[in-house]
Amino acid sequence: MKQYLSRLVMVASLVLVGCATSPMANPKDPWEPMNRKVASFNDTIDDNVLKPVATGYRNVVPELIQTGVRNVFNNLADMWSTVNNALQLKPVHTVESLGRVVVNTVFGIYGIFDVATYLKLERHSEDFGQTLGYWGVPNGPYLVLPLFGPSTLRDGVSMPVDFAVSPSQYINDIPTRNQVFALRLVSKRAELLKSGRMLEEASIDKYSFSRDAFLQYRRSQIYDGNPPDEEDSNDDPSANPLPAK
Questions:
Q1: Does residue 22 belong to any structural domain of this protein?
Q2: Exposed, middle or buried: residue 183 (CB in 10 Å: 0-12, 13-18, 19+)?
Q3: Based on CB atoms within 10 Å of each CB, which residue in 65, 83, 175, 178 is the most buried?
């Protein structure tokens, strides 16, 4: 894993050096020409593969089963959120996240039923990129990843950690593991069908809108919904106070 992360950092550095930045480039998106090409590639894959499959999944699979699938994956995500909340020194969020996992696993039949939400145990979704952001690691440039979509350099480098600790990675049977990954991807894409349709119908630059919306949403996640003014922080760890616990 350490070797893999080192390679990712090296590749990112080479990309940073190799991608020319025009004087008029958005300071948050200095690699815009490259990112637009990757976004166009992702749109092609989505239009021809992911969206049709997700539409069929939504139309054919009963809503009760779709909800159960989402709940199971959310329960698995809550396990990693528990760890990241602890790494961010958020004791209340850590206890609530752990409580969600225990309640939904035991009483929700491995997470099929979201009993924790009924009991008003709030979900605090956290990943390793958010943990790095909490401790002052800056976003770095905006980055569109093939297949995975909008990200940043920090989140792109941290993504292998999120994958490495995913419970699905411990499924020994490779075909089964791939099926679980595909189901999770299709389920997530089905959730986004409505918002994706609204974006396509809007007369805007889809790329710019997606970039700005993602960066704003991600920044809100890092600061638990209460980000400081950007001019006060500039995403500079030396000037960026730690998010409120």
A1: no
A2: middle
A3: 83
